[in-house]
Model the fold of this input.
Amino acid sequence: MTRTDDQIDKHLQSALFGTPVLHPDEQHHNLGTFHERIDLGITFTQALMRDYSAELQTEMDAHPDYQLLLHGLLDEDILNRYIKLANQQQIRFAIRNDLMYQHTPTSLAVALVANDAINPATIDIDERFPLPPLSTTTPLSHDLLLDHIHQHLERNRQLFNGRHHLI
Done:
């Protein structure tokens, strides 16, 4: 193949299959960014269990140049809470709605990201900002709580598919 044929072949491949993506599985799990660029991450399970606005605000104050990425399948009240926080902190944000972004209990629902690699020791918000131990026991068992979260995520997935005529 000549150089021109090579260029035409690359152009056709991109037109047929889209622009090649580096580490697509990692990006689909991490809202379209690389793991080394994430400062803090909140999974769907974590987002449904509690509000992390104070923790995110602390990091946003420390890093006003970062961007907040939000999964479009988050509950509307959770999504609105973090959009409001980003606006108050004057932090850029983006809502990722593409179906390629994973929607599982352990995939990221919210991520505070840098433009370049920062490689923090951990991105897990619960590890970086641990809660003090509870003095009382929770009335729900761990398995029951996880089952509730899975049902909630499945209901959101079905609503999304119905809204976008994917059923």
The mean pLDDT is 82. Strands lie at 38-43, 67-71, 92-96, 108-113.
